[in-house]
Write a structure and sequence with these properties.
Elements: H1 3-11, H2 27-37, H3 41-48, E1 52-54, E2 58-59, E3 72-73, E4 79-81, E5 87-88, H4 98-103, E6 112-113, H5 117-122, E7 129-132, H6 138-146, H7 148-157, H8 159-184, E8 190-194, E9 198-199, E10 202-203, H9 207-227, E11 231-235, H10 244-249, E12 254-258, H11 267-274, E13 279-284, H12 289-292, H13 295-309, E14 315-319, H14 330-341
Parallel strand pairs: 1-7, 7-8, 8-11, 11-12, 12-13, 13-14
Antiparallel strand pairs: 2-6, 3-4, 4-5, 9-10
Helix pairs in contact: 6-7, 6-8, 7-8, 8-9, 13-14
């Protein structure tokens, strides 16, 4: 099978020739791996057996100077500072009225340049499974705009404000993704988007609030992608098992970077209860096994996960957190991928 055929077979819940490989990494680990192995980006992906390639729109909107102390700015005008993605420096809609939410300077979808997406996807000549679409982290954007505690409080006290904030955010992402799909849906296989609804000890909000405030917007993006004939995959960290039935009802195809170290995410249970209805991606523990283990222990645990998750298809193997951290030993990551690709 080609990598693309392998992935689509898994998405159809049929056994492929081997379990597909997913490779996500922090920039720091990726650079370390390239340096140690003497590879460029594509050579490293080939060495790891990655069955996916990704294309994205590029921000081409107004460039606004950062305030002192800020190291980045989101498309919704939130400045951030700190390590990595950092933290929002303010929450401009924390005290906003409904009218002020509507009057907020929401971004223009035309700021996202989609002109090169189809060409970039076609470079792979149909060999790899192509991920496309905007990351669309509408949950995180709402937290940035309102603050997490305020967002939860307003769900009870001012639900109309929460509805309006989510509607404006998802209006933007739906329009961007529609532009992406209009330009390149025939060259894309999977719409890949991300919102983290779980913590180490369980979901950040229960099924009732999730169904009321989140699911309609998630379903809107899923339905849009499906209308173009695309599969859908959500990145969602943490323990969110109580939300999985709702995601399945929304016709989500795949859940990405399943973390077995989190509460409720025991792999045998997930496979037994949901494995015939949704694709699980990830599942090999990057929290402990990849960082703290040895190549031999990584091979053993990878084999154990494959034995649990691969029967009947519906499984893509990779690290349980998409951003493999720089402190992860390269030899452990190679051991994981070599075990997966050995079949």
């Amino acid at each position: 099978m080609t990598p693309r055929e392998r992935v689509l077979t898994a998405f159809n819940h049929e056994p492929p020739d081997r379990v597909p490989c997913w490779c996500g990494s922090s920039v720091e680990f990726w650079d370390k791996a390239k340096q140690q192995l003497g590879y460029d980006d594509e050579q490293l992906r080939l060495r790891l057996g990655d069955d996916f390639r990704r294309v994205l729109p590029i921000y081409a909107g107004p460039v606004v100077p950062l305030s002192p102390g800020a190291n980045s700015r989101t498309v919704f005008g939130i400045e951030r500072n700190g390590i990595g993605y950092g933290h929002p420096m303010n929450h401009p809609l924390a005290n906003a009225t409904l009218a002020q939410v509507h009057d907020y300077p929401w971004p223009d979808p035309a700021w996202m340049d989609v002109s090169q997406i189809r060409q970039n996807a076609k470079k792979h000549a149909g060999r790899y499974a192509i991920l496309g679409g905007d990351w669309s982290p509408f949950w995180h954007d709402a937290i940035d705009l309102l603050g997490m505690e305020t967002l939860f409080i307003k769900m009870y006290g001012e639900p109309e404000v929460v509805d309006a904030v989510f509607a404006h955010i998802v209006d933007f992402y739906a329009a961007v993704n529609e532009r992406v799909f209009d330009a390149a849906a025939d060259a894309i296989d999977v719409f890949f988007f991300g919102n983290d609804f779980g913590s180490q000890i369980g979901p950040l909000l229960g099924p009732d609030l999730f169904a009321r405030f989140i699911l309609p917007h998630m379903k809107r993006l899923i339905d849009l992608a499906r209308s173009y004939g695309l599969k859908t995959q959500l990145h969602c960290c943490g323990g969110f098992a109580p939300l999985i039935p709702l995601m399945i009802d929304a016709r989500l195809d795949s859940l990405h970077a399943v973390q077995p170290s989190c509460c409720g995410m025991e792999l045998p249970t997930l496979k037994r209860e949901f494995g015939d209805r949704i694709v699980f991606n990830g599942c090999i523990d990057s929290h402990h096994v990849l960082i703290e283990g040895t190549p031999d222990s990584v091979r053993r645990d990878t084999r154990r996960v494959l034995d649990i998750m691969s029967p009947g298809g519906g499984f893509i193997a990779g690290a349980s957190h998409d951003t493999i951290l720089p402190e992860t030993p390269l030899e452990n990551v190679l051991a994981m991928f070599d075990t997966i690709t050995a079949g």
